[in-house]
TrEMBL record:
<dbReference type="InterPro" id="IPR050490">
    <property type="entry name" value="Bact_solute-bd_prot1"/>
</dbReference>
<keyword id="KW-0732">Signal</keyword>
<dbReference type="Pfam" id="PF01547">
    <property type="entry name" value="SBP_bac_1"/>
</dbReference>
<dbReference type="InterPro" id="IPR022386">
    <property type="entry name" value="Chitin_NgcE"/>
</dbReference>
<comment type="similarity">
    <text>Belongs to the bacterial solute-binding protein 1 family.</text>
</comment>
<feature type="region of interest" description="Disordered">
    <location>
        <begin position="35"/>
        <end position="56"/>
    </location>
</feature>
<keyword id="KW-0813">Transport</keyword>
<protein>
    <submittedName>
        <fullName>N-acetylglucosamine/diacetylchitobiose ABC transporter substrate-binding protein</fullName>
    </submittedName>
</protein>
<dbReference type="InterPro" id="IPR006059">
    <property type="entry name" value="SBP"/>
</dbReference>
<feature type="signal peptide">
    <location>
        <begin position="1"/>
        <end position="34"/>
    </location>
</feature>
<dbReference type="InterPro" id="IPR006311">
    <property type="entry name" value="TAT_signal"/>
</dbReference>
């Protein structure tokens, strides 16, 4: 597959038909167009001396294979970044898929991976396992390279604080670069609340009151991605931190004994269980996937949705013009909470990796360097209604309603930002075990005490499993 070779860097934001520039192969053909081989097709990269214009030493003739997760952000932002890349370097084989693990894990094992992977979504590959098997490259050369916009400023200094740390797993090496800066919280329609004559609830008693009023109007209080119940943690985990303090989440991350049995966890689980017990959850929610739950929400059948800031773009097709999408921090329990209402869960997300066996590792890192340039970062925000991890890239942009409120929520939080790490450190525990117990609790199959006991047992099993690498907060 080929693509146009040289384009003007300044053309990026003027060209909206980039999808026609970079040809996109079927995912089934990925293994046939890998850039890591030396089969005579120009795919393998030669060693090139770094220069001021080419700080990572990219072979200008080598092809580059990029695979993007086809989720809430789509892939147009990567296609656009590809135009800039091809102005100076070789052609790009660009693909998108939701089946990251099933499609790419075999190629990682066989030593024939793409050069850059957007390792995201429900089929995200297990990062600790990839690191343990030496399958991902250290991105420190990229972070130490001069940024695209100012050669006197290294890439790492252009990133939102905390971005680099998310890519570290127990050492100084940085194995992934998270591109989007995601604000997690309770998403709602300002229009829907206005029609109901209520404001966003700041305490749990107020939340129950709002949900009861909605129920009388045949509107559910909540819906969520029942098939991916870990979505509920996007509000449940910061709720726990609000009640008991940020150290409760650190204890959970560190797999400390009885961390899940903290009083703050019990209070949070009991509060959410009350939503189910009082009939405030949209009927059929346990069977919905993330798209279906978002659609039920945008159709006005439920008031609140736990989600991340990608939802504005992902739900755009079903969102009414007068919806006035907004996000708020999770509702507090009461005035006795350890952290203020403004406390929010926010973190660099949407991870990218360069496989260790990639045939064009320098090209994969250069592609990321381009994505972290101001032009590409601003383009990303405009295209997908999400902040990037590049500092100040959204300044001066006309933000859509949801992203505008997300920015305001982040600013109001100040230092009261939490980022639970066990999600990345122990992905199976997070997605399958914690998510599964929350699903059972929110469908009424088990009560909060049973859910907590089961989760603590799963956490203890993870802690005791010597085959699983462990991580700790400093």
């Amino acid at each position: 597959m080929t693509s146009s070779s040289h384009v003007n860097r300044r053309a990026l934001l003027k060209r909206s038909a980039a999808a026609g520039v970079l040809a996109v192969p079927a995912m089934g053909a990925l293994s046939a167009c890998a850039s890591g081989g030396s089969d005579g097709d120009g795919g393998g990269a030669a060693e090139v001396e770094a220069t001021d214009d080419n700080p990572l030493g990219v072979d200008a003739e080598a092809r580059l294979e990029v695979v993007i997760f086809d989720g809430g952000f789509g892939d147009q932002y990567a296609l656009d970044a590809g135009e800039i890349y091809m102005a100076d370097y070789g052609e790009i084989d660009h693909s998108k898929t939701q089946e990251i693990r099933s499609r790419l894990q075999p190629r990682m094992v066989s030593g024939d991976p793409p050069d850059l992977i957007n390792n995201s979504g429900a089929e995200q590959m297990d990062m600790p396992a990839l690191i343990s098997n030496d399958q991902v490259a250290d991105l420190t050369p990229l972070l130490d390279a001069p940024s695209l916009d100012d050669p006197d400023v290294p890439v790492r200094d252009t990133l939102v604080p905390g971005t680099v740390e998310v890519g570290q797993y127990g050492g100084q090496e940085v194995y992934q670069l998270n591109y989007a800066y995601t604000i997690y919280g309770t998403w709602y329609s300002r229009t829907a609340l206005e029609r109901l004559g209520v404001e966003y609830p700041r305490t749990w008693d107020e939340m129950l009151s709002v949900c009861e009023k909605a129920k009388k109007e045949d509107i559910a209080g909540w819906t969520y991605a029942g098939q991916h119940p870990y979505y509920f943690t996007f509000t449940l985990l910061p709720f726990i931190a609000k009640i008991g303090g940020a150290d409760v989440l650190k204890a959970i991350d560190n797999l400390e004994p009885n961390a899940w049995r903290h009083d703050a966890v019990k209070a949070a689980f009991e509060a959410y269980y009350e939503l189910q017990a009082k009939g405030y959850i949209l009927r059929g929610t346990p069977g919905l996937d993330h798209i279906e739950s978002q659609t039920e929400w945008t159709k006005g059948r439920a008031l609140f949705l736990p989600n991340g800031s990608w939802v504005e773009n992902e739900a755009a097709e079903t969102t009414p013009d007068d919806f006035e999408m907004a996000v708020a921090p999770p509702t507090s329990l009461d005035a006795g909470d350890a952290m203020p209402f403004e406390t929010v869960y926010a973190a660099a997300g949407e991870p990218f990796i360069v496989p260790a066996d990639a045939g064009n590792r320098a090209g994969g890192m250069e592609f990321l360097r381009i994505m972290l340039g101001r032009e590409s970062a601003r383009n990303f925000t405009q295209l997908v209604s999400s902040l990037s991890c590049v500092q100040g890239a959204a300044e001066g942009l006309d933000l859509p309603p949801g992203l505008s409120t997300a920015s305001q929520v982040l600013e109001a939080a100040g230092e009261n930002v939490v980022n639970p790490r066990f999600r990345e450190w122990y992905p199976e525990l997070f997605r399958e075990r914690v998510g599964g117990e929350i699903a059972a609790m929110m469908s009424g199959d088990i009560d909060p005490d049973r859910a907590i006991a089961n989760i603590q047992r799963h956490a203890d099993d993870t802690a005791a499993d010597d085959s699983i690498q462990k991580f700790q907060h400093p």
